[in-house]
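Forum: Protein Structure Q&A
Topic: Joint prediction for protein chains with partners

I've read a bunch of threads here and the consensus seems to be that you should model interacting components together rather than docking separate models afterwards. I'd like to see that in practice. Below is the full input, 909 residues plus whatever partners are listed. Could one of the regulars post the assembled result?
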Amino acid sequence: MRDVAVVSFAQSPCLRANRQDDMAETLLPVIQEGLSNTGIDRDRVDFFASGSHDFFEGRTFSYIESLDAVGAWPPVSESHVEMDAAWAFAEAWTWMQLGEGDISLVYGIGRGSLAADLDQVMPSQLDPYFLTPLRPHRDALAGLQAAALLDAGLVTERAMAETVQRCLADATTNTAAAKAGHYSVEELMAAPYVATPLRTHDVGPIGDAAAVIVLAAGDTARQLADRPAWVRGLDHRIETHYPGVRNLTDSVSARSAARRAAELAGFAAMDVDIAELHTEYSYQEALLATALNVKDAHINPSGGPLAGRPVTATGLVRIGEVAQRILDGRADRGLAHATNGPALQHNLVCLLEGE
Amino acid sequence: MTARLPEPVSLMPSPFHMEYTYVAGEGRSLFLRGLAARKLVARQCPSCAKTYLPPPEFCSSCLRRLGAPYELDGRGQISTFCIVSFPFPGQTYEPPYVVAHINVRGTGTRLMHLIREVPANEVQIGMEVEPVWVPDSELVPSLTSIRYYRPVTAARPATEGSEVTR
Amino acid sequence: MTSNLAVVGIGQSKQAKRREVTIGALVREAVTAAMADAELEFADIDAVVLSKTPDLFDGVMNPELYLADAMGAVGLPVTRVFTGGSVGGHAAIYGAHLVAAGLAKRVLVVAYSKESEGNFTWALSRPLPFSAQLGAGAGGHFAPVIREYIRRSDAPEHIGWKVAVNHRLNGIRNPYAHVQRPDITVEEVRSSPMLWDPIRYLESCPSSDGACAIVVTSDEDRPQTARPPAWIHGMAWRTETGHFAGRDEVNPQAGRDCAAEVYRHAGITEPARDIRVAELYIPYSWYEPIWLENTGLAAIGEGWRMVDDDRTAFGGELPVNPSGGVLCGNPTGATGLLRFAEAALQVRGQAGEHQVDGARRALGHAMGGASQFHAMWVVGAAKPGETQ
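Posted by a regular:
Agreed with the consensus. Here's the joint model:
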């Protein structure tokens, strides 16, 4: 594989509801910061890739507004995924392998606060004939998965509370976090359920934010960053859509994505110092750590999605948080994970390393 | 031999009801508030001098924050247009009606709006047009505060009714 | 980097209002046909790229989730691309990139729209306060551009009617085409209702349900079948900002840049000479001369003369949309991929009744948004570099 690295990461604070800025105003300062970290202008960028979703924005072609904000004149080479921007990162990394350019800019914009009630929206992510008409609560399928794990003895409500406790404490040093604080496990376990066995804090708080990553190849990366975060392996896998068909206590797609990423990287999840997991729910940490085979790594040092979940930017932020720690020397090897779909249907794994 | 399948289900209503908040943003809010006060507010990029109407907050070429807002009279030229000639559900106006791209004088962007007070077949590319605002009582922070555009009225030979030709 | 890439399987569904099948079943029709054409099993595929226009059109959010099973994608990487109407072209190119990058040996590219489910007009007209509520519709965007093309080129008005007839006559040779009008005449097009002046009803595309799928592989991992592959000689995409004064929408820069790059990759210096057949994204008849000029297949101002001289009709020197094109079927999410796939069918000699004789090299073209997204590929019967 061609050596490609993250040379810059920027994100806007995850706000529970940003009523001040439109898409462009949320995104542009982050793009400017992402570029200025490396000292380059936009015209040095050879390829742009982005991720967002119309259903969070409530209108068609919302991606074009983000594109107009970024500006595409003179014309640019560009693509977009209607998914979490972690998949745009995967596309940009693929494009970099072609050798047709040395710098890519990946951006994600996620605004989860615009839908007045996500329970009206999220059922449309399901099979339109068999599942959507049931209109399950947005956290209902996660609740089913959590209950299955509890029943199998693979997680406990106390362990879930401990995950939340650690993540929210870690988030106190993350200025982008939507939620942070020091809580006792007892305090957390006394909170009411939202979808049994999930309590409010077991669900990552939805919010609005943008994230930007600049990727560069080979010597260009070395020129743009003192310590580039090299992308050593990346893979993603999807599972059957139907939760009733799956073994909800395992994540076979996360498992196989991690295996394939490790083959590319030459090191595996068990070898990393840090792991940023796209845990939309607290119970998913234990499930993913097992499936990915993360051993001694510090999981979600940023606080992770339990401290802020800007929908389609959340997965890209995971990659950025890992890369940032490599860029500034706090970590040598890291794993970033992104997910989409009900009960972790689709999982992406990215392994990064400093030199 | 498999048994004969039943007739397929061909209709399954599954209506959505989704409500969203629209966040105008700072740049657009300036413009929308201007419309509610019968003003067309533009802004210029301090770097490339391009003038935007409606103005966002940032120049899409230079990514620079745009300069101070200022008012335009809204007159401009039709850069091109089409005549919508058929009825469809939810239509606001009775066809045929003219929808045009207007190069508003002093800007580097195009505004899309209706052209009225002129027979559709007399609309031409390059025609000078001006905005017609709704009465004060109907002004709102929306482009609907401009009811439509019409050929500029100075020194015009009026024809029957309010129709205008050039 | 793999040097040679090939399209080895192509499948499509019948384009129509398909209320008798689910979205999944519609997609599966195309996928099954593509896999059968490639003579491959799902176990041979290692990545899937899905193309689809806005999810609000038919109300399924992240359709790659629901369609994972129907696409045979369980256990594979799946990416859902969206770049306006050009998305099918983008998806094909991303699929080819995955092979070129060595990240996959065989990629399945899937595209669909099911526009009979959901409310297209509603989805396209969400009211926003910064745009006036004009009720212009899709054609309201393109009609002014056509008017400007006619003004610049001085083309006579029958050109649009003639294109509409040519494409409909081509469509009757394509069993998958939605619109089937074997006895259409110029007079009929001319007297059809005016929708968005200057666009008449019979100069417009329909709204269709439909799906398309292709399999892209490297030379090394190519299945050996009786049907030859289509070799990818060049591919490119370009995007430009949609709305600013002075933007040339009749001859957009992004389209010119995209064409220049795709010909450079393909080693083509005289496109009009080297391309034998073109599948262009023509949703309204006048876009044939517009895109002929924008893609360099005709000199500026000359595109309409090619129509007038029958050079782009079936049997002409450069047939455009022998499949019937977008005017005969427009499942928007699949339309771009259909253009790419039909170009590949031609150079494979697999286009059936709408096969163009001696189609050694073909252009597939897709565009989207306010003509701001462009994707193209050139495919050939011979491997790149070999005698064409």
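Chain A touches chain B at residues 17-25, 28, 31-32, 42, 57-59, 68-71, 73, 111, 113-117, 120-121, 124, 128-129, 132-133 (CB under 8 Å).
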